[in-house]
Amino acid sequence: MTSPTYQLHHACIYEKNPRDAMWTWLRWYHGIPAYYWEGYADMHQTSEGGVDYTFLACGGPFQMQLEAGPYQFEYERQWFAEHDSGINHICWIVPDALATVDHLQQAGATVAMPYEEFGGTYNGFVAIDLEGRWIEIMEYVGGFKTPDVEFHPVGHVGLQTLGHVQLCRDLDDQVEWYSRVLGQRVILDSRSSNDGLVYLADDTYGVRECVTVLATPATEAERALVEQHGPCISTILYQAADVEQAWRDALAAGFSEVSAPAHDDRIGCRTGYVREPSGNLVQIRERLAA
Ligand SMILES: [Fe+2]
Fold first, then answer.
1. Under CATH, which number does the domain 7-140 receive?
2. Cα(245) to centroid of ligand 1, in Å?
3. How far is the CA of 10 from the centre of ligand 1 (A)?
4. Where are the alpha helices (H) located in 187-230, listed in sequence order?
5. 64 alpha carbon to ligand 1 midpoint, in Å?
6. Class of domain 159-286
């Protein structure tokens, strides 16, 4: 079997109050490319429940999905009971979701939610990577697609989503797995002795600028996350032309302060941190030149 291509798409936040929280994001340069309410029969009603999905985007292909309880499936409710409003999964688009089940399982991943066809919208399943983070796989069918926004910096601060950060137990091992199995390539490597971070991108990077950052915990907030949740999806990552103003604008929009922009030796630029409404980390860095 040939390896499927994996195209990074979104991070899913289990947000208790998405209809309120989305206002905070909207005040910080975001738009809503799609809002799927719980009444959509095909996509969001299963025998176990229904759900609201709000997709948020900001000048780039990587999007956020705010997902509200009670969640579609019991396995999701169990995860929420354990981890609360964490970032539940990263979603990848593939050409053939059913074939991808075997591909990921042969590479050591396990299946959290079996393959399912959601009417005329998408086929998909959820896997768990070797360190326990969730990977959603989606194959669009028919004409359905969660809309993209313009891939262009937004506002006078030039803000764009860039991707996400996953905190790892064994960094080298995870870089090898995401490279070999999901076909990602290294575009920035700041590791030594299995410590530090790596930026990975899929082969659409020239057109769709978004990255997966695999890292060991480096800040107090990151160490606390790993202590509580183990290896996890920790952070939504942004780039901005004006990091200082983008960070201040985030606070004015309702994000909470973690640390003001400061030089980060690992990536050679200034980067600041805030928390989004449900408490997950948001990192804003200077523009990525890679
Ligand atoms: Fe998702």
1. 3.10.180.10
2. 30
3. 7
4. 220-229
5. 8
6. alpha beta
Ligand 1 centroid to 112 CA: how many Å? 13
Residue 122 Cα to ligand 1 middle (Å) = 11
Residue type at 33 in one-letter notation: P
pLDDT in tens, the chain (290 residues): 566 799 999 999 998 888 889 999 999 999 999 988 766 665 555 555 557 789 999 999 999 999 887 666 788 888 888 988 999 999 999 999 999 999 999 999 999 999 999 888 899 999 999 999 999 999 999 888 999 999 999 999 999 999 999 999 999 999 999 999 999 999 999 999 999 999 999 999 989 999 999 999 999 999 999 999 999 999 999 999 999 999 999 999 999 999 999 999 999 999 999 999 999 999 999 999 86
> What CA–CA distance (Å, rounded) separates 124 from 115?
5
DSSP string, 226-264: HHHHSSEEEEEEEEESSHHHHHHHHHHHTPEEEEEEEEE
- Tell me how far the alpha carbon of residue 147 lies from the centroid of ligand 1, in angstroms: 14
67 Cα to the center of ligand 1, angstroms? 8
Q: Do domains 7-140 and 159-286 have the same CATH topology?
A: yes
192 Cα–ligand 1 center, Å: 33
210 HSE (CA, 13 A, CB side): 27
